[in-house]
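so my prof wants the structure for this chain in the tokens format not the other one, which i didnt know existed until like an hour ago. anyway here's the sequence
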Amino acid sequence: MNIVSLSLAIYGLINIKKLGDLKIFILLPVLSFIDSFSLILLGQILGNKNNFLFFSEYFQIFFLNLELSIIIIFYFNYIFEIKSKLYYIIPSIITIFFLILNYFSGQNIADDYLPVIVVIEALFVNICFGVLFSLKIKQDKLIISQWANEINKGFFLFVNTTAPYYLIINYWDNQQEILATYLNFIGSIGYIILFYHIYKAIKCYQLN
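here's what i got, hopefully its the right format
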């Protein structure tokens, strides 16, 4: 997955001026690569597991919050046609709040509340996907742009691939490390599917 996320991140950054509404989606492969590379660099190359755990504890809060925010921004902009600059301020405020809470409470917010975040993300995407799909069927005049359709499919396949994986490894807490080792490929597949559809969306956007 590192190669896929890095390739898409580089491609997106090189063509950033041509991406328009798709610029925000390039943050996902960029952050995904940083997340994966930190494990390789800190955990395996440098052999400093404690530093990796410390970095991951705070980075995951930022990553998960931004991921959910991008999903919400996309559906609110495209389906509900609600656009506001507050979309870009609110995630920053929420992220700072959770980082401070994580630091002073001593809890690992990303791990402790991961199942809740995963369920919220999955429910929101599935509901919005259904709404968009039903509108497409009922209203012949509704035109869904190809790039938005690719993003919509990517989010739907992504959450329905990764959500069961994250919920399983969090439910079996005492065997979490073993399950993560053998089932980690499921999470990687989910992100590869998402990045593939983001790439397809970019190509569709550039053709318009």
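also thought this was worth mentioning. Residues 176-207 form the longest helix (32 residues).
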